[in-house]
Design a protein that fits this description.
Elements lengths: L12 E10 L3 H11 L3 E8 L4 E7 L5 E7 L5 H9 L2 E9 L2 H10 L4 E5 L5 E6 L9 E6 L13 H5 L3 E3 L5 E3 L3
Parallel strand pairs: 1-4, 5-8
Antiparallel strand pairs: 1-5, 2-3, 3-4, 6-7, 7-8, 9-10
């Protein structure tokens, strides 16, 4: 493998942030990961642009699980569930700089797609499973601490009832409409 000029020798992975699990019933997933397994609810809400509702939990020992469920039948996660059923959807790796990671991986012939640099708070890209040994990898850099509860004013019940949405600055907020 030849050296790539002006790029680091790796993609700058800081740590694995979470494992995302696609579920049909968010309440049932929360019962397992947030109840039976002792997970602590961190945050959640609806991403209307992606058509998903999420809830994230910190398990004892620090591992994070993100449950994702579709809000409508034509959401990408709905198609995933129809094709593959419930289970691991993606792994999220936090990197120093997602643009550098994309350049490095693309230069090494990995297929990187859905690069989104629009928000300074959460920039992301995905490595397709066909070039990542069957695993969808999400690479992200962020200015937000995602390992602490966003606010005590938002509860898991609020998320399950659809009362929470992610704002333009990636914060979970109560819906106003």
């Amino acid at each position: 493998m030849s050296a790539m000029p002006d790029l680091p020798p790796d993609v700058g992975v800081l740590r694995m942030d979470h494992v995302a699990v696609a579920v049909r019933d968010l309440r049932a997933g929360a019962a397992l990961f947030g109840g039976a397994l002792g997970g602590r609810f961190l945050f959640g809400g609806d991403s209307d642009d992606q058509g998903i509702r999420i809830a994230q939990f910190a398990l004892p020992g620090g591992m994070k699980i993100e449950l994702i469920t579709p809000l409508h039948d034509d959401a990408p996660v709905a198609r995933f569930l129809a094709r593959r059923g419930e289970g691991v959807h993606h792994l999220t790796l936090l990197v120093e700089d997602v643009e550098v990671a994309v350049a490095r991986l693309t230069g090494l012939d990995y297929e990187v797609v859905d690069v989104d640099l629009a928000s300074r708070h959460w920039r992301e890209a995905f490595v397709r499973p066909r070039t990542a040994f069957g695993t969808l990898l999400q690479l992200a850099d962020t200015t937000i601490r995602w390992d602490e509860p966003a606010t005590s004013a938002i509860t898991l019940d609020d998320v399950l009832a659809g009362r929470v949405v992610f704002s333009d600055d990636e914060r979970a907020v109560l819906r106003t409409d």
